[in-house]
């Protein structure tokens, strides 16, 4: 999914650069809008996959800390990128007088974005290739116990045991065996106290 999103973004950036280089200041707003829409679609494919990969090994007990750290890193990276690319843009815009300066600035910043996206795509491709060749790939959300401390192993084992126990208790239609009434009332729908009261009433007759 990440590689597909990177490919879509590259198409938008290349189209924008080609139009700006061929037509200069005559590049229409429609072309810029279309390129931005294509790049936005690519971002929609890339970002969720990257965020999911970053949080795949976070245990439920540390979900808050993991999400907070990810959000902090994301905000810092976005602010730094805007500052750096913006500086380059306005430096290029003032290097030439008139509208031509803004066309040059747009082209240069688009090239920088293209290099960054290619770097991401190559990094993801190499990571996937190393994973496949090494046989160390895991399903998203699965956790390897190797290389972890005893406390981390216990957290993973507890989470897995809880998931398996819930899967055994779960039945069709979202029904779960009641914790205190499993033997007496059988399957209890997860609908609150009213459902428990209804089942208890039927059992007492």
Descriptive key words:
205 residues, mainly alpha, 7 helices, 2 strands, elongated
Describe this protein's structure.
There is one protein chain. With 205 residues, the chain is mainly α. The chain has 2 domains: 133 residues; 55 residues, no CATH class. Helices cover 74% and strands 3% of the residues. The protein has 7 helices and 2 strands. A two-stranded antiparallel ribbon has the order 1-2. α1 packs antiparallel against α2. The longest helix is centred in the middle third of the chain and has 36 residues. The protein is elongated.
- Share of helix, binned: over 70%
Count of distinct structural domains: 2
Main sheet strand line-up: 1-2
Order of helices and strands: HHHHHEHEH
Q: Catalogue the unreliable spans.
A: 139-146, 166-197
Ends: how far apart? 57 Å
Write down the Rg.
27 Å
Q: What is the average per-residue confidence, as pLDDT, rounded to a whole number?
A: 75
| Computed structural class | mainly alpha
Produce the secondary structure layout.
Blueprint: H1 2-23, H2 29-54, H3 63-93, H4 99-134, H5 150-169, E1 175-177, H6 182-185, E2 187-189, H7 193-204
Antiparallel strand pairs: 1-2
Helix pairs in contact: 1-2, 1-4, 3-4
What's this, in brief?
By secondary structure, this protein is mainly alpha-helical.
